[in-house]
Records
---
Amino acid sequence: MSNKRKVEGSSSEPPPKKASSGGLAPIFTTARGQPLPPLSNNPLSFPAKVEGTLKLATYNVNGLKSAGSKEKSYAFRKWVEAESADIIVLTEPKMPEAASAPELDYLSRLYKHRYWSAPGMKGQVAILSKVAPVGPARYGLPAWAESIKAEADSRIITLEFEKTYVVGTYVQNSGKAKMFMEKRLAWDRDFQKYISELQKSKPVIWTGDFNVNADAKDVQDYDKVWNKLPGCHPEERKGMADLIASCDLVDVWRLMNPEGREWSHTTVFASGWRLDGFIVSRSLLPRVKSTSIRHEVQTHFATASDHRPVVCVVEGDL
């Protein structure tokens, strides 16, 4: 696998930026070596972490730098500080310069270990971790993969810890009129083999945006989307089902909410979908304590993203 990507650590801060007046400018200002304190008046509040557990989170931010980027970054920072997760997997930051962007300087105060996938690729992924991995981050898939290397490198980051692997992904979309279906199915085959190889040494926590609705209960408006839109086609559902079964994985949220209907992604044309979450090796299930979709973020910050963060709490060390 290629490991030549931007990896951040505790190196010196970039030069300070001069604050402009008014609005949200203060969140973009960091004095050299003196990261800003947490933002005040945070409307978000989540249960405190229980001693002896670790909190993992995933969030498709749908662009940290886009139209209204100050508002999006403000909401994102509020969530990061309120959630206080030990590991965050971000999908679709759409910000090639994120590793050195001054508006994200505050992340260095919170997360010593920060990894951003290949810049300029549409499917960018990042992992922010308070826990040190035991080796370098791995980007993409092994050389044997069918998937296009540059795409895989941008869509997959794997961190190895003492007892587990954490794999963050932004899975290939099948596209309008199934134009990328072959890519999607090749990705499923490659990823199935990859997870099987990882599990020979350690169990896996797989998280991110899976870009598929595995069950009819995972969509809000069945008649509008089922077998009609990307993420709802039978080929995609079968590919995901085969991957989960062959690797003996478990969709944590569905296991804990067998009849539940909640959405991690909403759009005007497609209503609600549950695309984001955590899928883990079955052997890890005794350690999984809870999982939640953070609807509060959308309630307080409607323009933050069309996705909601998803959180999973596990017992013990990674």
---
Amino acid sequence: MELKGLILLDNEFTGSLPPYLFSRLHDLGVLVLSRNHFPEEFPINIRDATFLRILTLSDNNFSGPIPQSLIIILNLRNNSFQGSIPQSICTLISNLQILDVSNNNLNGEIPKEFHNLVGMINEPPNSPSPITLDAISVDFTSSWLSQEVQLSLEFRDLVMNWKHSKQVISTNKLNMCTLLDLSNNQLSGQIPTSLGALKSLKLLNISSNKLSGKIPSSFGGLENIETLDLSHNNLSGSIPPALTKLQQLTILDVSNNQLRGRIPKSGQMGTMVLDLNYFTNNSGLCGIQIRLPCPEDEGFPSRHKHSHTSHGSCGKVCGSVTQLASYSQSESRFS
């Protein structure tokens, strides 16, 4: 029987992968090598494994370019992959549902071709079901005493930064998850508006990069998004009102940017639970969410324009809130 799944996570393996790994294992559907000590470039002949659908290499020291194959789950977090995100990844792996390349050394711009990822556009199923090798187009059956036996695959390998906490996603929920995590790299340039087409995404994390420009209003099309993390970049302008349409949004983190203006207050932006830390260290945000009036609000205190002085590690928002504590007013004044 041909090998269909190879799971070697949580070991102390070192050294190089055998160069014939994919050329000989044509039928390999799942490869999990996470949390080992592999230090080398990943074999470039991965495309020989034409049935490979799940590839998780997280928490190793793999380097070189991002491997590409016909994959639906690609987890490369916490490695040393470098270079830019190849545009071809958006066409060659168009059924990609989960892409996590966080904590690597990637640079360049985010590809505009991400709108080709139909796996992040189509609606996810409403109920979970275990992912089996059969379900990902690999016939994992064997004959034993003339009886066909179907084998399913269960493993708990994907550790994701979900809603600002690490959570393990098991295989019986993978087909409900669609996420894109590009955080903690050296990506630069503007955020492509094409990301707004990924309407089935539940998590989008592009924090801790060198991105600039404005937050695209196209993000109003991320109708299933639950967590949107844009923090620790060089984004400017205002928070687009289009984000008020995101009914599933529970976490929006725009801290440590250069954003200005009123935080939108209608729709989901006015009802979700907000944390002041998600808005700190910007150059001029205001609004009811951070208890900081905008200049155009009635009764705006004249001393506000002098409030952005040194505020310590708490950031400008906290400092402004402290100085405005004596300015007694009801929230309705800003509603």
---
Amino acid sequence: MAYPPAAPLTDAEDDIQTEEGTVFLERVARSGIRGGGARRLWESLRLHYLFSALLGLVLLSHIFAPHSFDVNATDYSEALPHAIAQSLSLTHAQCDVSFPKLWPQIEQRPGGARVAIIDGQMFVKKYEPYTHSSTRTQAVLGGLYEAVTASVEPMPDVDMTFHPQDKGGPGTGFSMTRSYLEGAAWLIPDFGFYSWPEPVTTGYKGVWRKIERVESEVTWENKVPKLFWRGAFLAPIRDALRKAADRMPWGDIGGIEWGNKGKGSLPLWDHCRYKYLAHAEGFGGAYSGRLKYLLDCRSVIIAHELHWDQHFHAAFDSNSSSPNQNIIILKGKDWDELGQTMTFLEENPERAELIAANAWRTLHGR
């Protein structure tokens, strides 16, 4: 499916062009061209205008349709172009083509703030600035405002609440995450897509640009052939990961001391220098905000069975027999399958590279 062509001229715009053409014809007539000669000239000009308009539509269609996606297809023909991945001005039709696996979240249905969008303007009706998650609320509000002001199509009026907490919120409304077992909230992008100051990292776009640079420098063959993870061991699932990879030649699992200036940490973009990246959910059994960054790497993401859903999870293909597999999700929450999975990947490097390539095509920048 190609991007829709630019809209045709409105009646008013067409009248302006016709009026200008008539004035030009009168000037030609006054200059000495009379009768049939003027008419023939005007007809040729109309043909010239028509040809120029058709050529313009072809060029615009080429510009806005750099790739072809079938919304109902299970695979993607190519990676998302840089200009499309970073654009904040796509139409609804262009979003349908570029991000076909994200919309199921909207069909499933409160908070840190209350927001109303009326006639294209955003109003903050409620905001609690002194909570521990106030910076997250500010970031979500910033992301919403950016989306409203950048939209090239009218946005529907809405009055909404959202929760910025790691475990979502009670009742119905908008949230950054929700339990796969409950599924009551409507999902929106989490605060990290706009800004995340606490772990001293930039927002999603800043990390994305640095990942682009790292991936342009390191080929798949030159990536470190180990399973990498860094974080605080604040949840049993993370302790289980460390135990499963302990003393294994393919394991590089380590902790971070946040109270000691983040000792042991590695910039998110440098995670992409590894072939395999582990993902473990976070403190108190909550979701982990790092997954969106890891998915931008041309690496194989290996996760345990996830408890928390986010707005982009519908794009995952974890089917081990699928030619479009873009992530590995192990069964259970104890990493029991990790050892045999790593052995399989080491013995089948073509499959590992395929999964990483699929992730790059279908998840990177989306």
---
Amino acid sequence: MNSPAMATSLLSPPLLFPLLTSLFPRHCRPLQAWRSEPVLMLNRNLVSMSKSRRKTVVYAVNEGTEEELKNVVEVDRLIDVLREANPAELQKRVAENVLTFNEGFWMRLATRAETCQSEDDRKDYEELSEMLMKTVDLFVQKTDEKIESATDVLKSILKYVVDEGEEALWPPKDPHALDLLEKELIQREQEGYLDEGFLSEVNAQLRQAKEDGDKPGLQAMLQKVLQLYAARTLSKRNYAKKGNQILRPEQFLETIIKAPEDQWHKLLIEGLNVGTGDVSPDEFDAVINKRIERTLMRTKSASYQQRVLIEYVEEIQSRAEEIVKLLRSK
């Protein structure tokens, strides 16, 4: 059974990025729909366009803040790159700059089209707009499919502990359900499904369950999924052996990492020398901090994977500190 401390530490970190579908409203239409009122443009600078060998105009607005001017320059550079890109390169550029395609981008693209000096240039911008719309829609569609796939994977893992139509109970009624859940998780991991999208889905479900406030069983199940993921991922690297030597504090940490969370209390008492073991609290704390450092170096910064793994190790550290404080006070 999960402790309140563990339930708090891994429950629902804030989303690191907005849903992509919110950036690309479905009401967007090709460039013609973004007609805007004439805007006074100053400092018109002609640049050559190697693709069509025609002249195009790049406008810079002298009004507004320095930050606004900087944003306009950056958007103009991206538009120029997109104009020169072939279809394959266009897909790559869209993926690389996905967060840039907001309302400000489309309005700037429309402004450049409106103020073209030739009808040919205007047509080029309209064609670019249509291609970008299609590419962005395709990108959003693929993203939606990936989110749905992550949801299906999570459902397949939880099917052994969730009875359809019934309230989620924890621990599950079937004593073998947890073993089946773990086997399914391992299978999905081997198939490559436990990626960042999957972790994002688990965290989203956890946050929703916490906000609802009436699904403690579901919270515990999702919590268990993250614990199993963290334990398996962290256990793939063994730091207990150094040549022919066994590093006892590292070996003890790896034992805790692999163990179910409800066994940590007993194992910590048996392993630390403030209890009946042979590892000092300082030694144990040192190897935990070293493991945190290694994990930070080997995972992508601010990723869900990094967050889950670090919080798992930090929870072990917190439990150890509680045990040491309790035993020393006796």
